[in-house]
Amino acid sequence: MKIVSNFDIRYSDFSEDIARIETENKKRLPPEPAHREGTMSEPKYKRILLKISGEALMGDASFGIVPEVIDKVAADIYEVDSLGVQVAVVIGGGNIFRGVSAASRGMDRTSADHMGMLATVINALALQDALERLGGQTRLQSAISMRAVAEPYIRRRAIRHLEKGRIVMFAAGTGNPYFTTDTAAALRAMEVQADVLLKATRVDGVYPADPEKTPGVQKIDRLTHLEVLHKQLKVMDATAISLAMDNAMPIIVFNLTKPGNLKRVVMGEPVGTFVEGEDNG
After folding, report:
1. Which residue intervals of 4-82 are DSSP H helices?
2. 73 with 136: CB under 8 angstroms?
3. What is the pLDDT of residues 103-138, one digit of tens each?
């Protein structure tokens, strides 16, 4: 014979009332927002390699680093970092010194490229300072040993920093002359197993002609690596594109000067030009 306790009796007396109250409370809750096309709650890319040219830090100046510009760049990077995205950065040095230009005027190419590598370290230190003033945790690694200001580049250590949520900056290119920072960006993207290589520029993507010199030219939305090489489009240098193509690394070319663009790219919105392999087309 089942023994019915006073608790069972009291609960059964109120069970219908409890169910009715729960139903009424659900009706009072605000409706869930409708899904909007093209929006996502989670970033599409979990680990990115961002390539920034040194010229992007000049703003409208003809040389050097404009503090307001680098602060805006740092704010965009920090915003993406706050989403939980693992961010690695390769920065150029063309705002301070360009090895190719110096070599064309008679300087030894190896010496000129080494000077260009040092310029990238200066830019990386400036970006590191701007990010840390915002509260970001950063690490700077250099392909040329300079332990007083940067860690030596060690792949496993770099990946560990990314896994811990630190923004990692790679300076001094590959550490070798005759290789550009574009090539360094493609190389580091593969080494740290980034999901995508983001090429930050001052225009909205890839164009068949320079949009600043040819008004009305239309942006190209999608390309393959091979098309970039065949058409000699100014995306990145041929070595970087070939390296990305051989290792199936997608590239997104976008305008960094528009606030919030970096976040939109990371969230998967159709921003800029998407460069992919032949098999993905």
Report:
1. 6-28, 67-82
2. no
3. 677 889 999 999 999 999 999 999 999 999 999 999
